[in-house]
Design brief:
10% strand; 4-stranded antiparallel beta sheet; globular; alpha+beta
Length: 268
């Protein structure tokens, strides 16, 4: 099996079109005009437990959800789904599945973030269709990466046979040089999906904050019931439920508290 790191090196030399808007390229000038606003958004995002119940304008929700899809994603496979629950009966059932907590029952909007590592193959094909639209040709290294390497790495095969072969291949290759060693088993694929889902969830919450609304990522829910409300397939996993809306003053339970920097940030 070809090394993923080798392909990364060759991909770095592949020519891609530059960003259409040069103003979106990070630079000292970019920081001068955007850093303060970003820091305000970052510090303004707080987990709100009680809302007014007023809905967020549809146009705002659609824009924020679209912006959430700009979150980084491994190999751009975007193995997640965002469920904006608008049906009143489903919203009520979803709030109950979230243990009836005020963050769910008083929210203006509820969004379920589902990890969908099982969709990697169909998403890969959709991605290739977008990248090659209009008879565009991919650079050889990019073509190999998406059409050959990714399927070899991600395919599990019947009875986990590919998992065993991958584990052996990663081990042998790793004896000689650094190599990517996952995903191998079911747990690796689950982690892969939840990582992409979490990145999209955080991007969604920051977007809603920038639009002037509050959010709360909820991990307290009955996953079986949430899946039933959404009619999710067995392989889908609920990563989190996000409530959103306009806060009531009592919805902010206290000052923001974090561990000391030295507990989390390590310089070596």
């Amino acid at each position: 099996m070809s090394s993923k790191s080798d392909v990364f090196k060759s991909m770095s030399s592949a020519r891609f079109s530059p960003p259409e808007d040069a103003s979106l390229v990070p630079s000292p000038e970019f920081a001068g005009s955007h850093l303060e606003s970003f820091q305000k958004v970052l510090r303004a995002r707080r987990s709100i437990r009680i809302y007014t119940g007023d809905p967020i304008p549809e146009a705002v929700m659609r824009e924020a959800l679209k912006e959430a899809t700009l979150a980084p994603s491994s190999s751009n496979l975007q193995t997640y789904e965002l469920y904006w629950v608008r049906d009143p009966e489903r919203r009520k059932a979803l709030a109950e599945a979230c243990l009836g907590q005020p963050a769910a029952t008083t929210a203006g909007e509820l969004i379920v973030v589902a990890a969908r590592s099982d969709l990697w193959q169909s998403n890969l094909q959709k991605l290739l269709n977008v990248m090659t639209a209009g008879d565009r040709k991919l650079p050889a290294s990019v073509d190999f990466y998406y059409k050959t390497l990714i399927p070899k790495i991600m395919t599990r095969g019947p009875l986990g046979l590919m998992n065993i072969l991958r584990r052996i291949s990663f081990f042998v290759t790793g004896l000689k040089k650094p190599t990517v060693r996952t995903p191998v088993n079911e747990a690796d694929h689950r982690i892969f999906g939840h990582t992409q889902a979490a990145l999209a969830a955080q991007t969604l919450m920051l977007s809603l904050t920038a639009h002037g609304y509050d959010t709360c990522p909820m991990g307290g829910f009955d996953a079986v019931r949430v899946k039933k409300v959404l009619n999710l397939p067995a392989k889908a996993e609920v990563a989190m439920v996000i409530s959103a809306g306009t806060r009531k003053p009592e919805g902010l339970y206290g000052p923001q508290v974090r561990l000391q920097d030295q507990d989390l940030i390590k310089e070596i």
